[in-house]
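Morning run. Coffee first, then this:
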Amino acid sequence: MSMSDGSWESVQQTSLPSRTKRSRLRGWATGLIEAILPTHCTICGVYIGDPQVNRAFCAACLGALPWWRHADGCPKCGDLTSTSTDLSSRIDAACPRCLANGSPLHRCHVLLRYEAHIRRWVPGFKNAPGVFGPSIPILRSLDSLVDALGHQLSHQLAGTLDLVTSIPIHPHRFRTRGFNQADWIATRLARQLALPFDPSCLRRTRHTQPQASLAGIARHRNVGGAFRARPMVERDLRIGLVDDVLTTGSTLEAAGNALLEAGAIEVRAITLAATLPPAARSPRRAAERPDCPYAAYP
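And here it is:
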């Protein structure tokens, strides 16, 4: 082909769309490979190595995540009186302050503080725009964190739960969102803990305003009486109640009350993340907190 008649320019112009298509195909192929056999950290992008060790984070980024620490105290009230350096004496102890105030939650188990990347991943997961849902990096990140939570709970809660259930969302919100993020977390946790997952334990009796738009006492009023539990087939069940984030505990407590009224003997809240309660936010408490206890999680 002669290039003196301007045909080279026309070849370049006609090649651009095909190159764009190939670039898009490579991008999709890379995303698919990363979803199946991830190789790069979702935070910094560095090569991870063996994807069997950790599917989402390099060692540095994993250690830098805002893990919930022993000195943060109870995730709901910040009480430190039940914490101890002896893990075996601490994991089954109820939170004295919460139970003294009439909380139906025997204990709150949390993996992370609701800070840094977590504040982007959780909303990005449950409020993902478009028909394709959350992005692959967000899915990989949260899937890896649920694995870490399951690893932690398998040691802390061995033999203390009979089943796992989740906070339900109203059918109207389910139709809008297309899924329940608490179900997604609970299903994976139950599998890791070798426990049955029963999403039918609770149902939402009324459509409530999003808790994120409310504060303080308004959160309690918003979800008060919003849940009903089906009568337990077996009474005296010990239940792990799963949600994505614990802020004031209002939603978890309303659901926990319904489960206890239906015959459960114990309800433990399990969330991926929690905001620090007021009692745990002082500079003195922050200075006393030890290094991340789960930084070495594989």
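The first strand starts at residue 107 and ends at 113. Good start to the day.
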